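yo

u said u wanted the structure for the complex thing, so here. seqs first:
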Amino acid sequence: MNNQDLLNLINITVSFEGFLALNKLNLNLKKGELRAVIGPNGAGKTTFLDVITGKVKPTKGEVIFKGKSLVGRKEHKIARLGVGRKFQSPRIFENLTVKENLEISVTTPKSPLNLINKNIKDEQLNEIERLMKIVNLAQKVDSKAGSLSHGQKQWLEIAMLVGQKPDLMLVDEPVAGLTDEETDLTADLLKSLSGENTVVVIDHDMEFIRRLDSNVSVLNQGTVLCEGTMETIQKDKKVIDVYLGRPED
Amino acid sequence: MSLSKVKFDKKIVLSFWIILIALIIAAPTLLPVFRLNLLGRYLSLSIVALGVDLIWGYTGLLSLGQGIFFALGGYCAAMYLQITSSSEFPNNIPEFFALYGVEKLPFFWEPFRSPVFTFFAIWIIPALVAGLIGFLVFRNRIKGVYFSILTQASLLVFFNFFNGQQKLINGTNGLKTDVTQLFGQMVGSEFMQRIFFWITAILVIAAWFFAKWVVKGRFGNILIGIRDDEPRVRFTGYNPVIFKTIIFSIAGGLAGISGALYTVQSGIVSPQFMTVPFSIEMVIWVAVGGRGTLLGAILGAVFINYAKSLVSEALPASWMFIQGGLFILVVTALPEGVLGWIQGDGPRNLLQRFGLKRKIETYPSLEVNNKEGNNE
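structre next:
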């Protein structure tokens, strides 16, 4: 652990009635880093996000974010500290318009009094405009989010995540169900976000991960199997055994 | 599409206004005082229905215990009326106390000597009780059907408590208000009943504006967000517990006002206000009128109750069947309620079925159709 680190997961163990979803998992993230997390089904990828965001309390271990422990904090407090999350299937508010969805995410402070009393600030409106341009939804401002296509929903949720201005963005399978073109655009978008933000991307899609061109952590059976660049892990024997499989030729 | 919908909404709202104002002006002269009084009662019920719409229609909290707050408001009003009209009774306390040998006014009656205190108590006490119950329930993340069961259980607790306390609040007999005096007038008199009708009509409009203001903008959007996906709201940095407590408390306050108005117009408040079926009926009014429409809650409460009194006069035993049938019809055929159906694609689909309206075009000609929609 050093000062450059934004997030440290130390010996995290999560036990669901005896089943170890995470088993002594250690992971450190530097500020501004883009990190991909891959692993076979059931490796504990989503539980790993649940622990950071406060949805699941680790049985053992410690989560340190910006020098503060996150264990035992409520979800909304963790979100306010600067942890944003995009869910596996797009979780947007379908009965609200695109703009209203983004308003919810960019609004600060997130207190009832602020919401009922004042109009939205100009800078927040500008931010919404900017986000809608980035994700190509400017034409859909007043459409119900539920009427968007799957790809647009994914992008709206990414825009909502960015609008929250989190220091740490946790992105769970952002390209599931997207076309190749959309996948490439998403990869570029996430790359452009890192540097200023710290981004963790979870995905299965190897092409997509390769395009991210980042460090990769491979999870297996609730623990980090291997860490390194895409080239390193592709050569790693353990990784090949459990996940990548041997080339057919 | 969205533009034509806005225009359509405006038409509904405008015609509602015209009808409402016409009704309020005409009713006291047109209707015999008996009917006027009934209309006034049903209008006051529409305020509690507005609260149910806020918590259920917008926030997704199905409360089966709104009768608690309704009755609390009614008791506050009745206690004031009883105590100010008790000067000729023994010990200068309300008449019923003598039946149970109580000689000294219970302490919690004292503040109700003040009209100012009562004015605030009518809505603040139910709001506080609702806020407290709500906070404890929401903090423990009790939701869905468990929330409904819990509110119903609380209702039963309150019912049994009020029912059993003869020495404090006259127990199961309740508190009568129609023979009490308010500002030198008999509360049950024709003159006062007309005044109560006006007050009720004005308060319904005020409550409607207030509810609209609450659900407008980002605050209302968070409520809808909580209804549709509460964990997502949490992960965006909002604390749903506070939002739910606030809205539940607002609904409680509205229920209190509603209960007070209902009490002075029906002449009595009793633990019957806290029976299980009555609180469920409140939910039915909103379901039939249209969840999440506000206006639907008002119309649902007034029309169903008016229908109830008309049907009960003609065929005394059949109302329960009709109400049950109405509820089943709405749940199966019009899940959005009558107003939700009108505001949605309902009328269009119906006209289409009879060949009176062109079918909605699908993808290739969608753009064209959209333009037409805007010109409607």
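The first helix of chain A runs from residue 45 to 53. The CA atoms of residues 215 and 224 of chain A lie 13 Å apart.
cya
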